[in-house]
Structures are given as structure tokens and as C-alpha cells.
């Protein structure tokens, strides 16, 4: 792959400027931005039956860094979480823009922004940074996860309950909301996912995510608590390749209004996270033993 | 001398030219393009009194559920107490549209506060540094004062009830003029005349409020809500009451009804003096 890029780009100048197409229709600057993402700590998102889990392998670069401080997974509005892999400041900027989008949506529509609209707006924003040679693409891949309320929400600032009779323009029995998970790449490309992974350990993580039961159409889909445990295990597994480096597991979740987080994006409670980490370590040891047996 | 009375006492047009009303509100011939806007001149849909009392470990605050349109009791399920987080509740008197504006402002503030961690009402474990009632009162009073300084006031009288950073009971008011004050008992509007004297009998000073129990505080507030319903023509017998306690957090009840009213005596009253039957 790398040699291919070299062959077509070096000396031709097509990779020197953003928004420039190469003769075979590629934007090399965007592809270089993807390289920045591939160096970042693994970030994953899992869309479960009753919520979404976001997890991050946060590499500890120094013993002088305070434990459990320096949070990287950010909250947007109250029901959305963003985790990203790649250049930290780019991620911060991405989050800041997402917060602005959410608050401007609220000021127009007096309601929280739906996940699909937020993903759409952020996709458009990231894509705009591939259009001009005066800017550079985002050096991150962002994972946006959250829960759109399935219960009826009051309009922001509303007073009273309104008429007691009549449909009030609403359709009866329509099911709305639910968990959502989107991944946005440096090109601005985004899709909705059942499970998403990015960063250094994405290959391992993706392989593990594919083994999970995540498609609700198949009738079975893992629960939020299972999701938390799987997320911890996947991050630990994805870390195996860079075993020599220390890391911290950061995990957040969002559930339905009736669930443990009451529709809010929150950090996974310490007790649950530690339990998940314990199980993750145990699973890893178990795997090692199996491998040893295989070798025998 | 002009024979039209509305011109009396005004500079004469034939001497000084036509009067330039540009600085006056639109309703008085003012507000031309390029000149400053004129804003809210009077409230439309309004809520009446809000009352609150500090007790030994928290604050009780109450307001009825009525939004009046002049003398018309127009909306009867308007909840005028808004919970900000587990440490602060705001009670709104005055214009309801301005209350909605402030409610949205508080919501956006809460969303921003939430970026650092949850400030949920029922999240008792969270050790996130929450915005206290004192912080919230400072914020709201600045908003109110800025708006009155722009001659565009938010037509409200607010009570902010809750806890300080160190979990001491906190109660203070802010109004459309940006005026702020604090006391162990506070009431806005009609309540300032009818409820305050009663509440002050129970809680004359800070010391008395430190000795007051939660039950006694709730009882005093309920009693005052009843007196206000008897005598305030813009009041209603359904009300909201919230208790912010340092132990148990916020307890908000939205649809309470007044109890133990006494109207039996009315039977015996006949005429206005000499009439007996």
C-alpha cells in the first residue's frame, strides 16, 4: 500500500496540497490524515440493545500523569458521547463543534439534536476540511454514540401540558428514538454502525466486534452491561500488540431514560468498570493458556 | 396658545418644529428605522407569588400552578418551580414568556455544566463540583441586571433556593430591576405583603431558621399558600412545592392541593349591616 502511494505521489506533487485530486481520483492529504488516526490509541463503540458503550485505550505517556484525570471521551448535549482516535487537539475541536451544533439545534427546534442529524452535520463539517488547500483534513476518526429519547420529550421551556384531548398533530403508536452509533472518518465519510473501532488496534477490535451479537434484526442483541464487559475485553485485547506500554481504560455509556444512566451520557461507574477490567484480564489469561495448550 | 389640550405644556411646533418622538416607544409614535429598539413594556401572561423559607438543613420553596392573562385565570397547569440540579431550584413570578426564556437559558447552562460530569437530581453519589444555588443566583442576577440596563427587562421576580458550595441552606431573590437580596424567609409579589409577615413570625432571624425543622418549614409555607389563595385574586388552590435538603437532595411535588380551608363561617354572614335573613 505504502509503496503504491510512493509510486504515484512522490515527485508528482499531487500529495502536497489538500483538495487536489491525483490522476486516479484520490486526495492524498486525506489519506495521510488517516495515517495519523492509525497511530492513535484504540477507540471503540458498541451499540447494544438498551444503550451504547464507548471505550478508549488511553496510552499513559508518563508516570507523572494523574490517574483517572485527563478525560478524553467527551459529552455533547447530555445524551451523546464522542470518542476519537488520532490528533488530540483535532478531536477537541471536533467535540467543540459538535457541542455548538447541538446547542444551535436546541435554539432552533427547542429539543435535543437527533443522533442522525448530529452525525450528518459533523460529517459535513469534516468534509469541508477536504475542500480547500488553505486547510488540512481532520487528523481523527470520531465515534459518536448516544441515545435518542424514545419517550415523548417536553419542548424546551414549555409550560403546562397543553390540550388534554386530541392527537395534537402527533401520530399514535409510532416508535421513535433508540441507541445510535456513527463513525466519522477524516474524509467526512460516516456510516451508522452496530460496532465501530478505530486507532492502532482497530483490526483486532473489529474482528472481536464481528463476533458479538449486535444486530437487533436477528432478534438477539447483547445488553448494555454485557456491552460494557465486551468493550473492556476488546480494549485489553487490542492493547496486546503494544503490551510494553502502560494504558488506562476509559469507558462511558448511554442508556434509555428507563436505564441506568436515565438517557444521559455518563462515565461507567467505577465498580462496574473495575469488574469489567477484572473479567477482561481473566479472559486474556485464559486465552494465553489456550494458546499454550495449542502449542503443546 | 393651542386650543388642543394634548399640546399644552409642549414646545410649540411653529417655534421649535414638530416634536421628535424617536426615543419614545412605538405605541407613542417613536421607533423609526435606525433607532434603538423598544422592548417589553409590560408583562402579559403572569404568575403570582413565590415563597420560600430556610430551615436547619435546607430550603422549602412553593408557587401555585396558575398563569393569569390579566384577570383571566388562563392556564392552570403551569409549573413555576424549575429544578436546576440537586443543589438548586428556581421559583419564577411575573411574565411567563420570560420565564420560558430563562428556563431555556438555564437548560443551556445545565448542558454546559454537564460536560464536566453529571449534575443529576437523583445522582447522590456523584462528586462532581456542582454549580451551587449561590452560583446560580449570581448568574441570574447578572442576567436580570444586564437586561434592565438595556431597557429590556425580563419581567420576573425570582427566588433561588438551595445549597451553597459547603451545603449550607441558601435563599436569595433577583428581580426585573436586577435588585438582589437575601433573608431566611422570602416572598415575591403579593406574598411579600401577605406571606412574609406570617413567615417572619415563625422565622424572625437566621438563628430561628437554623433551629427550624423541615416539617415546621413545610407547614409554614403551606399555611401561607392558603392565606394567599384566600386573598390574592390571581392565585389558585393547586401549587408546586420543592424541598432542597442537604441530606435528601431535591424533592419536587408539582400538583399539590391546598388542604384545610375554612369557609364554613361564610354561611352566617348576611348583608352588609342591618340585614338579618
From TrEMBL, chain A:
A UniProt-annotated Pfam family: Proteasome
Top-level taxon in the UniProt lineage: Eukaryota
Domain Proteasome alpha-type subunits: 14-36
InterPro entries: Ntn_hydrolases_N, Proteasome_alpha, Proteasome_alpha-type, Proteasome_asu_N, Proteasome_sua/b
GO biological process: ubiquitin-dependent protein catabolic process
Alphabetized UniProt keyword annotations: Cytoplasm, Nucleus, Proteasome
Coiled coil segments of this chain: none
Signal sequence extent: none
Subcellular localization, as worded in the UniProt entry: Cytoplasm; Nucleus
GO cellular component: cytoplasm; nucleus; proteasome core complex, alpha-subunit complex
Primary location class: cytoplasm
Keyword Hydrolase: no
Similarity field: Belongs to the peptidase T1A family.
Quaternary structure (record): The 26S proteasome consists of a 20S proteasome core and two 19S regulatory subunits.
Protein name: Proteasome subunit alpha type
Organism field: Neohortaea acidophila
TrEMBL record, chain B:
Pfam families: Proteasome
Keywords noted in UniProt: Cytoplasm, Nucleus, Proteasome
GO terms, biological process: proteolysis involved in protein catabolic process
Subcellular location as annotated: Cytoplasm; Nucleus
UniProt entry tagged with the keyword Cell division: no
InterPro entries on file: Ntn_hydrolases_N, Proteasome_beta4, Proteasome_bsu_CS, Proteasome_sua/b, Proteasome_suB-type
GO annotation, cellular component aspect: cytoplasm; nucleus; proteasome core complex, beta-subunit complex
Major site of localization recorded for this protein: cytoplasm
Family to which the UniProt record says this protein belongs: Belongs to the peptidase T1B family.
Function: Non-catalytic component of the proteasome.
UniProt-recorded name of the protein: Proteasome subunit beta
Record organism: Neohortaea acidophila
